[in-house]
Amino acid sequence: MSFELIKQIPEPAEIKNQYPIPKGFEEKKKAFDEEVKEIITGESDKVLVVIGPCSADNEDAVLDYTQRLRGVQDKVYDKLLLIPRVYTNKPRTTGTGYKGMLHQPDPEKASDLLSGLIAIRNMHIHVMESTGFMTADEMLYPENAWYLDDVLSYIAVGARSVENQQHRLVASGFDVPVGMKNPTSGDFSVMLNSVVAAQSHQSFMYRNWEVKTPGNPLTHTIIRGAVNKHGQNIPNYHYEDLIRLYKMYMDRELANPAVIIDSNHSNSGKQYKEQIRIVKEALHSRRGSDDIKRIVKGFMIESYIEPGCQKVGNGVYGQSITDPCLGWEDTERLLLEMAELI
After folding, report:
1. How many CA atoms lie within 13 A of 179 on its CB side?
2. Domain residues for 189?
3. Is 52:137 a contact under the CB 8 Å cutoff?
4. 175 in Cβ contact with 150 (< 8 Å)
5. The whole model's pTM is what?
6. Considering the domain boundaries, does residue 6 fall inside one?
């Protein structure tokens, strides 16, 4: 194997000891986690909103954005529970380009994974400290999950990872909700198979250990649209799609049937302003069907301070350097409107 060894990365326990959760926040996180859990299980009628930039590339801008979210959360708390989307690992279709803060704590400098690992843990903690929010991230690399498991309240498994065995098995050991996206093909059965695997107890190898897990009953689905063989986007958030997913859920013995609707990606064709219409349509479907209301527990929305996106190095503060996002004004308006529509 032609691997050049760069540096040895410390074990998760060492990193956690060096960069611990601030005193008193363990209990706050438990309380927040319980709120999220109650939405997924149906004990709460609130709607979950996982919201934030496509990729969290700059801590100052992320903290600015999440502090703005805090002000909105206080206005909509009786209807919505917001979880800042602090995504620090960016999957790349071709394996090239900016891969997130884990790889590049400074997107204009070379990769430095140890510095990146420390930077992303600190950023999640700083959001927690400055806003009281607990955060969401994507589990792109299952072997790295141990470095962040104590700071995350929501975890997503992406469309390109959902068929991977290790992602499914590691998800079975979490005690917070894990959302399994439909694959890029759009196949709901693949997504649901991932939920079955993650809700089941498992035995496997993980970071040089033989481990057992109890299964995670909070594992659920995320629909993000699909792409056909011609490269065309196929949305899957419509009323008929949600009814089909509900029926597929009912045919399986799964705990806590739930779906989060990703309003961007192939559902919007990456036309970021379409997210506003998509969320409103899905809320209308939710009002029109008890079955849809039963399973649609929330939304994913890509949003930042400035609308759209930019190339790395352009230097626009608070604008995405990956996929285009809603700007703050549209975001605030949408969240307030969502609370009125529920």
Report:
1. 32
2. 13-341
3. no
4. no
5. 0.97
6. no
Return phi, psi of residue 115, to 5°.
-60, -35
Distance CA 102, CA 23 (A): 25
- Length of the chain in terms of residues written: 342
Quick one: how far is CA 100 from the chain centroid?
A: 14
Closest CA to 62 of 250, 339, 317: 317
Please name the helix (run of DSSP H) or strand (run of DSSP E) that holds residue 299, with its range, or none.
Answer: strand 296-302
3-class SS string, 8-29: CCCCHHHHHHHCCCCCCHHHHH
The CATH number that applies at residue 143 is 3.20.20.70
Percent helix, strand, coil in the chain, to 5, is: 40, 20, 40
User: Which residues make Cβ contacts (< 8 Å) with residue 234, sequence separation at least 6?
Assistant: 186, 225, 226, 227, 228, 266
* Closest C-alpha among 86, 36, 35 to residue 65: 86
Residue 3 maps to a domain: no
Angle between helices 113-131 and 59-76 (to 10 degrees): 30
DSSP state of 182: P
| Rounded Cα gap, residues 322 and 74, in angstroms | 29
How far is the C-alpha of 321 from the C-alpha of 98, rounded, in Å?
8
Task: Give, for all 342 residues of the chain, the pLDDT tens digit.
Answer: 888 888 999 999 999 999 999 999 999 999 999 999 999 999 999 999 999 999 999 999 999 999 999 999 999 999 999 999 999 988 877 777 899 999 999 999 999 999 999 999 999 999 999 999 999 999 999 999 999 999 999 999 999 999 999 999 999 999 999 999 999 999 999 999 999 999 999 999 999 999 999 999 999 999 999 999 999 999 999 999 999 999 999 999 899 999 999 999 999 999 999 999 999 999 999 999 999 999 999 999 999 999 999 999 999 999 999 999 999 999 999 999 999 999
Contact partners, residue 251, CB within 8 Å, separation at least 6: none
> Is residue 223 assigned to a domain?
yes
User: What are the tokens at 119?
Assistant: 């930077």
Q: Which three-class secondary structure state does DSSP give residue 207?
A: coil
| Residue 243 domain-assigned (yes or no) | yes
Number of separate domains in the chain: 1
